[in-house]
Amino acid sequence: QDDGYVRLLRRQVEEVFRDNRMIAVCQYNSMPDEDVVLMRHYLRKHNIEVKFVLNEIVRPVLSQSKYKNLLPLFVARNILLVSPETKAKEMLRVLKGVPQINLLGACIDDTILSRQGVENFAKLPSLEASQGQTAGALALLPSQTSSLLQRGSVHLMALLDQHIRRLQAGETGSPAEPAPAQSLGAH
Q1: Annotated region Disordered: where (predicted)?
Q2: How far is Cα of residue 83 from the mean position of the Cα atoms in its chain?
């Protein structure tokens, strides 16, 4: 019966690592139950769940997975903060107010990060903002290229117009009108 329960717990740990994009490993120091409930509430607002885990359950699962580099983090009482989304910034903000919980490291989008790595990740702009900046930069290039390509033809047209005016002025004997500075300038 105990073996069945242990297998069930290990399967749950496997599901946690399989189904979540962010898995943060934290050291858990005892704290009042009310504080635990409050911390869970604030984390749940950001779709982050708290999972209390036993090292004797987690360690065998990790040792047989691609997450085996997380094993050194599981030496004391640990909890996992998990989310199907990458909510590192929100998690760090909540943990700042809970000194009994120390972030040791995390696995975000299958990348193992130290505490400093998680903090650096949290400072990155969102994927949508980065995509918008990239799209804006890429859209600017064709318009600049088009402008550069048109500049030569506009300048050539201005020179030809000036040449035609001179030719016409030579036939009629009147002085040619000087071309406006804008038609010769940088368009």
Answers
A1: 168-187
A2: 15
Q: Distance between CA atoms of 126 and 141, rounded to whole angstroms?
A: 23
pLDDT of residue 172: 65
3-state class percentages of the chain: helix first, strand second, coil last, to nearest 5:
60, 15, 25
Token output for 152: 């030569």
* C-alpha closest to that of 25 among 121, 118, 122: 118
Residue 113 in tokens: 């990060």
Mean pLDDT by 10 residues, the chain (187 residues): 84 92 92 92 94 91 89 90 93 92 92 92 82 80 78 85 88 56 48
The phi and psi torsions of 116 (rounded to 5 degrees) equal -65, -40
Q: What secondary structure letter does DSSP report for 68?
A: G
Structure tokens that stand for 46 in this block: 């950001």
By the 8 A CB rule, do 55 and 78 touch?
A: yes
Answer whether 187's CB lies under 8 Å from 161's CB.
no
CB atoms within 10 A of CB 165: 15
Judged by phi (left if over 0) then psi (alpha if -120 to 50, else beta), residue 81 lies in beta
Read off φ and ψ for residue 64, nearest 5 degrees. Answer: -105, 15
